[in-house]
């Protein structure tokens, strides 16, 4: 099966060709500009490669509800050129093949559930901490959409008493993303995040916010595994700090096997940063079979 995969991001569009086993045969990256300039390049790429289906994991917010009038649109995104843009419609018309569509983070959780460290599990949370923060949620064996799709990066957390940074979410100021995404770290300390690698207090504070969010997700969604990806998680020193703070905050309340083995519960992404694009292959495969 020859499947096209598109990981549509705010800064770049990753296009790949692969198969239903998650094997990627080629991949390119195209800068995200406007639909007028970027879409023709993407369409050309996939058209030349004669794909049977396309799977798109897209920056959001989007409308993934097949019954809704706005299905297939990128909706209220701050990226104005893409606001209310019917990306699925454009590809369906140009390529004439089935198109699967979901959020970028749902793509990533699907990649891990289908091909990675979460195979066989029914309840999994994938959190990306990068330019923004978002969660893909696999719940009871399905991608969770709810009323739209989860926007779990914009939850409200208890601030650390020593943190004076105002937060930089354009909507909420100091929501989780506003306090803990890569740009927040860089503005708070006035340096690139990777340059702060040796500053313990930076990663303790970052772990403080991530652990708090994870406790909330654990209490609400009861995931069997939590996978952390995105550029900020390249600071692998965060993992043990997060596990420790999750353990302390939960204070023994949940006596589950997972809480007793946090090293295997809160884990890094397992597919060499290909979890998103591999998930898009699976979105494409599912589109052929009419699976949501
Ligand atoms: P995006 O979210 O745009 O898809 P990334 O997941 O790579 O991209 O996230 C980019 C962010 O990750 C940047 O804001 C940067 O602060 C942070 N970042 C990238 N590499 C590192 C690193 N090695 N250590 C800490 N932070 C990093
Ligand atoms: Zn926010």
How does this model look, in words?
This protein is of the alpha/beta class. The chain has 2 domains: 3-104 and 273-288, ATPase, nucleotide binding domain (Nucleotidyltransferase, domain 5, 2-Layer Sandwich), CATH 3.30.420; 117-268, Nucleotidyltransferase, domain 5. The chain has 9 helices and 12 strands. A 5-stranded mixed sheet has the order 3-2-1-4-7. A 5-stranded mixed sheet has the order 10-9-8-11-12, sandwiched between helices. Helix 3 packs across helix 9. Bound molecules: adenosine-5'-diphosphate and zinc ion. Residues 154, 169, 171-172, 175, 177-178 line the site of zinc ion.
Short structural summary:
The protein folds into two domains: 3-104 and 273-288, ATPase, nucleotide binding domain (Nucleotidyltransferase, domain 5, 2-Layer Sandwich); 117-268, ATPase, nucleotide binding domain (Nucleotidyltransferase, domain 5, 2-Layer Sandwich), CATH 3.30.420.
């Amino acid at each position: 099966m020859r499947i096209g995969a598109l990981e549509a991001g705010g800064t770049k569009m990753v296009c790949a060709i692969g198969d239903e086993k998650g094997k990627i045969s080629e991949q390119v990256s195209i800068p995200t500009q406007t639909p007028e300039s970027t879409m023709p390049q993407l369409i050309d790429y996939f058209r030349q490669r004669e794909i049977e289906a396309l799977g798109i994991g897209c920056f959001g917010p989007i409308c993934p509800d097949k019954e809704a009038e706005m299905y297939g649109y990128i909706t209220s995104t701050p990226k104005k050129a893409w606001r209310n843009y019917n990306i699925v419609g454009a590809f369906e018309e140009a390529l004439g093949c089935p198109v699967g569509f979901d959020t970028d983070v749902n793509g990533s959780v699907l990649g891990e559930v289908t091909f990675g460290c979460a195979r066989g599990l029914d309840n999994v949370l994938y959190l990306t901490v990068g330019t923004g923060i978002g969660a893909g949620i696999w719940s009871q064996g399905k991608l969770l959409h709810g009323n739209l799709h989860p926007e779990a990066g914009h939850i409200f957390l208890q601030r650390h008493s020593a943190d004076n940074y105002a937060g930089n979410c354009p909507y909420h100021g100091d929501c989780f993303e506003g306090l803990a995404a890569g740009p927040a770290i860089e503005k708070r300390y006035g340096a690139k995040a990777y340059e702060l690698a040796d500053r313990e207090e930076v990663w303790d504070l970052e772990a403080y916010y991530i652990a708090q969010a994870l406790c909330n997700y654990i209490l609400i969604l009861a995931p069997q595994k939590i996978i952390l990806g995105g550029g900020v998680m390249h600071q692998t020193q965060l993992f043990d700090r997060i596990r420790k703070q999750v353990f302390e905050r939960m204070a023994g309340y949940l006596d589950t096997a997972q809480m007793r083995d946090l090293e295997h519960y809160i884990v890094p992404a397992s597919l060499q940063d290909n979890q998103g694009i591999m998930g898009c292959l699976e979105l494409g495969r599912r589109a052929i079979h009419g699976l949501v």
